[in-house]
Amino acid sequence: MTRLKQLPLFSHIILLTLISIIVFTGFFIFYTQNTEKLYKNRSTDYTNKIIYQTEMTINSNYSSLAKILQFVSYHDDIQSFLLEHNNEKKYKYYKRMNTNLASIMMLNNHIYDVIIYDNANNEYSLSDNDYILPKYFHNYDSVGLSSCLYNPDLDHHYFVMHYPIKSINANKNANQKIGDAYLILSDTAFLDQANQNFNKTSSILYLMDGNNQIFWSNTNNDFSSLSDLKASGYDDYKITTIKGYGLKIISLTKQEEEIYSLINIQRSYLTILVLVAIIIVSLWIVLIINTVAPLYTFVRFISSIKEGGLSTLKKRVHLYGYKEIAIISKETNEMLEQIDDLTNTVLNTNSKLYMIEIQKEQAKLSYLRSQINPHFLYNTLECIKGIAAEHKQPDIVEATKALATIFKYSIKGSDYVPFRDEIKIIKNYISIQKLRFEDRFYVEYDIHPNCYDVIIPKMILQPIIENAIIHGIEGTRESSILSISAYLKEDQMMIRVNNTGVPIAPERLLQLQQELTDFPESPAQASRENLGIKNVNERIKLICGSNFGLAINSMENGSTTVTIALPLNINPETRQ
């Protein structure tokens, strides 16, 4: 609670706003999840009901067709025809059998044909259509149903229902198989009524045979198999197997109506949530404008006085808001006037003392001038930055700030730093060069995240970047690209600096590559050109070993690349 009270006022307001939004959002999510759960339960119950009704319809139609087939098998004329050997009598029974079969076909418009086979494998049918009959039915002793078959001549699908014909004549082949009866059925034979009634339901139904081929649906979607259904993106489906028939019901729920209702409810609550959030945010905005914003203006004003010189004491603050804010503004301005008066009095009273002190300091100054070092330059740059800020010179402020950061980085701290610190300094250096070159080049960074924490020697990148700008980019008026990348390769970190612009002359490139490879014992042994690159190369080899260092290459199109190879296990504690 104490830490909470110490937070700024603006943070308190943001915190309260977030808490309010979280509460309302939590309520909305809770409601949405419960509504969705209720919908899913209703949808599951409804789907189970539809599946049950469909299964009952299929069972009923299957049972009716099986009874028709049994009626055919035990019909007297058909029994007599199959048992008779006298041709004249057999022909009489044949005509009566055809008449009865024609009457039987009229009982159900889904019966394409009725086929009778005797034991001699002779076929008797009412139509001349050539239907393929599964051979495995000959071994069945009860009603059997084939998978969905296709007749290319008639261009329609069909089922074959089989029943063995056994003699019911006690005097002739009693209870012996005397033939086979087949019903050729349409692919809608089992769900003809459902094809009309279930079109109005909110479920999508498919019927599939034992070979996973889809032969019926209450929609216009043309799927021929379960794999086609899956390939079309339908994953949320339920398969129910009808025992004994080899048929399967695939059910999907049409969720448009339920989802539309659910979405309407969600939209209503979301609208309420948005309106409440807008009201809360509006109230907080009014509070911020009249309280927090003036207070932040006041804080910035005090900070500017703290960081500025004596001239800042003449500034005045003007705050607008609630009554208390106006009182703060008035009292602060009166206090500043008193401080300004007291400051002037002190300055006038001690001016003579300052003159004496100045004379004393002149001797010290002469000594200090001979001791100029990077620390003095750093402090001087900080002073220049303050003056430029006071006189509103942002370019000078940014340049001196960046240069001061580079000086401070180079003279303080360890000689070994994480790679992320080196990148920060490079960005400061590039920002200085940008003030000079403006849009003549732009920079690309491609740093692998694992590279940022790798420890490297300090100030090895700046000379490389400086060399790329001075020798590669400065000499061309065309827009150039400076690319900096880093990645890990086995037990090494590879850093690449690539620039477009003026290429290195082939003779000079060969000489520079030779100097980097030879690693001379003394800089005097090598040419003075590109001294920064060679110094970096020598530092790396001295610190990390001869297997590491720089490599340089330049193409005729102006692309120059410097590659730095560094180990991953530099231990700063073991290096001086």
Descriptive notes:
- Residues 458-569 form the Histidine kinase/HSP90-like ATPase domain.
- The chain crosses the membrane at residues 12-32, 269-296.
- This is Two-component system, sensor histidine kinase YesM.
- It comes from Anaerocolumna xylanovorans DSM 12503.
- Keywords: Kinase, Membrane, Transferase, Transmembrane, Transmembrane helix.
- The longest helix has 65 residues, at 9-73.
- The chain is elongated and about 155 Å long.
- It has helices at 2-5, 9-73, 76-83, 87-105, 192-197, 226-231, 256-307, 323-349, 351-369, 374-390, 394-411, 419-437, 462-473, 506-518, 531-544, and strands at 111-118, 123-125, 144-145, 149-151, 156-166, 177-186, 203-208, 214-217, 238-242, 247-253, 416-418, 441-447, 455-457, 480-489, 492-499, 549-554, 560-567.
- Helix 2 runs antiparallel to helix 7 and helix 3 (76-83) runs antiparallel to helix 4 (87-105).
- It has 15 helices and 17 strands.
- The chain folds into 3 domains: 47-253, Beta-Lactamase (2-Layer Sandwich), CATH 3.30.450.20; 308-364, no CATH class; 413-574, Histidine kinase-like ATPase, C-terminal domain (Heat Shock Protein 90).
- By secondary structure, the chain is α+β, with helices and mostly antiparallel strands.
- 52% of the residues lie in helices and 18% in strands.
- The strands form 4 sheets. Strands 1, 2, 3, 4, 5 and 6 form a 6-stranded antiparallel sheet that branches. It has a 5-stranded mixed sheet with strand order 12-14-15-17-16. A 4-stranded antiparallel sheet has the order 8-7-10-9, covered by helices on one side.
